[in-house]
Amino acid sequence: MAGEDTDPKSGASAAAVPTHFSLTLVGRLMDLSDLECTSVVSVVRAMTSKTMPQTIPTIPNTEEKKQCSQNDSSLDLTSSSKPSTGLPRKLPESAIPSSPNKEVQSNDQKPSHKLHESVDVTSSKVPADDEKDTVENGNTDGNVKSDSTVDKDHGAASASGSARLTGRSETGERGISSRCRPSTGSDVSEESACSSFSSTSKPHKANDSRWEAIQMIRTRDGILGLSHFKLLKKLGCGDIGSVYLSELTGTKSYFAMKVMDKASLTGRKKLLRAQTEKEILQCLDHPFLPTLYTHFETDKFSCLVMEFCPGGDLHTLRQKQRGKYFPEQAVKFYVAEILLAMEYLHMLGIIYRDLKPENILVRDDGHIMLSDFDLSLRCTPSCTAPTTCFGPRFFSKSKKDRKPKPEVVNQVRPWPELMAEPSDARSMSFVGTHEYLAPEIIKGEGHGSAVDWWTFGIFLYELLFGKTPFKGSGNRATLFNVIGQPLRFPEYPFVSFSARDLIRGLLVKEPQQRLGCKRGATEIKQHPFFEGVNWALIRCASPPEVPKPVEIERQTTKLPVSTSEASAAPTGASQKGSDNYLEFDFF
Ligand SMILES: Nc1ncnc2c1ncn2[C@@H]1O[C@H](COP(=O)(O)OP(=O)(O)OP(=O)(O)O)[C@@H](O)[C@H]1O
């Protein structure tokens, strides 16, 4: 299924198509436009006949997904939504990236692609039935090959985590009562492979006691690897791996460990996807994005150790709401946090591309975390993203520009607005989830960061109305609807004019006319729907729901011992639903 780097329209090598990243500080107009970002554009023209591709070995079903899910427990609503009060306008702290100190490395890598005839649906995935096993994983494959240095100097924190965590696990509900909405993506469609990272600190998470626990083990044993973790429970399976609730043995610090079978990744041409996810995770330091504590490899597995979110995902949470939609105040809270996360990603030159409730996890405090970056698109300048919104050394070249006197700034505008968009980045990949795909992706026109504002609109709609706007009777119908059907709102539930107006602005089929296209997240944040949101302090706001505390089960599970077992276990197409096919011709 891999293809060549050829633009089907121009015939030019896709890898040679330059993309651009522009970063503008509105008000002070510090311009970083035309920073070139080499992105290997993979061409994915999904065009299948109405018959299923021969290469599909299994037809996924919801039961399989259910096997991959964990147990569920009900969640009490312990707090009501509380709108933020308006405070003086201020630079959003949560939108300020910390200093990643990444090494920039331009990249000429041009993975070879072929014109795809269908989206990747070839993986055979049978969830492992190992959740009841009680063998410690460290005994099966604890041979640590390498140890990462993602975590660095973190502030002294007191005791490491508590055995008492909050939250609800995802359950069979997702497999039983909710739709499976797999993300589609080309096999080898990584558009860029930009750099090596050397992040030295993550100030936003500096007070997290898990850093200290990790450091303690490192100091004691000189290395940190799989054998130091107890896998307690499988949390879920994705396309490239399985995620386990894990304890750093003896520390009562809990993590979500994504375990990917290397042979399976290689065999299924998913290595680049896994690499993309790891590199992006290494970049991140934001309250609404995952923290990667460490990563390591064994002979068989590649492991990412991330923050554990005990509250399940927003899709599951929505299913539990009365009417299967959230109250508008709750929606405002969730989408505001996502908007800040998206703003930060765009500032790093990352186009997320796979926004959907399933990818938004709920932390123990009820705030959210955007997860799953394997379909994201990066531009090289992401690695040179500013350390703060006003990071002078990144934004301007002259010393004079770098240190403007405050009063001068104030004369222009009290608080300059940040607009950071990889607005000219272009990809020809066909990735995403059918109901969330932007028209320009379906039409194969190439796409940029505006796709994230489209998906943001679909996401907002789904949270408010309990369904997506263009869903058809099948995938083909859905895709046609996205392209051709006008946006309509149901009469019920009642949704405010400002919410509908925001959705209208976001779900403009022409990307250049779409809200967010010109000034990025800033444009969206200023919409009346977000009136009253205190962007700077949103992470201190009361979330709509706080997961109920749950005791962590002390049982352990194990990883598959053989590659074949592993490849059958952690992969996800089989539990991703049978709608993982594209059944349309060219638009
Ligand atoms: N940090 C986390 N905390 C709690 N559960 C998690 C965490 N990360 C992932 N999960 C669970 O594991 C499941 C698999 O996650 P993963 O990111 O591997 O795949 P995915 O979201 O299905 O996407 P994809 O198939 O595109 O990789 C998720 O659906 C989620 O339920």
UniProtKB/TrEMBL annotation:
Residues 96-109, 136-147, 557-578 have a biased composition (Polar residues). CDD domains: STKc_phototropin_like (cd05574). GO terms for molecular function: ATP binding; protein serine/threonine kinase activity. Residues 72-85, 191-201 have a biased composition (Low complexity). Residues 110-119 have a biased composition (Basic and acidic residues). Keywords: ATP-binding, Kinase, Nucleotide-binding, Serine/threonine-protein kinase, Transferase. PROSITE patterns: PROTEIN_KINASE_DOM, PROTEIN_KINASE_ST. Its EC number is 2.7.11.1. It catalyses: L-threonyl-[protein] + ATP = O-phospho-L-threonyl-[protein] + ADP + H(+); L-seryl-[protein] + ATP = O-phospho-L-seryl-[protein] + ADP + H(+). This is Protein kinase G11A. It comes from Triticum turgidum subsp. durum. Pfam families: Pkinase. Belongs to the protein kinase superfamily. AGC Ser/Thr protein kinase family. It comes from the Eukaryota.
